[in-house]
Amino acid sequence: MAEEMGLHLEVRTEENIAAGMPADEARHAAQREFGGIEQIKEAARDQHGFAWLENFTQDVRFGTRMLRKQPGFTAVAVLTLALGLGATTAIFSVVDSVLLRPLAYPRADELLVFGENSPKVPQVAASPGAYLAWRRQSASFTHLAAWNFGPYNLTGEGEPRRVFAQRVTVGYFGTIGLTPEVGRDFQAADESAGQDNVVILSHSL
Q: In sequence order, what DSSP letters do the residues of 43-71 get, joined into one string?
């Protein structure tokens, strides 16, 4: 670009000399007419879209020098960025799995979760009596099941372990469209008192 600007300046100088100007005066006149070379180069860079890249490079170099001069500030900045990125990643993972991705069940768009509402405590879980009444009277659902989720103590061999499990009613797996890979599903008799010590294990357990 500098060579091109110089060539234009030389051509204009020669034109002034051909018009009868002395060489020095012809060159000064060409420079006045042509304008500042550096300003023209900057305008050309802006027009071709390279100015942002040069500015970014200069900012990175300046920022790197400043961070090297202040290691304490650098450590705090890096830690803040790490925590921010970690929190953002964790939040996105939850949003992605809960809101963006479809549920990993057949016909997931037909699943519905509902419960009882109270004026003082909205969106509370359904009581057993309400669930039994819904199951007897419902004509709008193909399947209806209830569950609760919580920690339990697993004992028997070795040290006791704290595990999370669901207590479910008969028809739970049919409601979400799944069947056990090994063994049988829960049956109506399993809901009877004294016969309800039946469990379906997950792959992880």
A: HHHHHHT-HHHHHHHHHHHHHHHHHHH-H
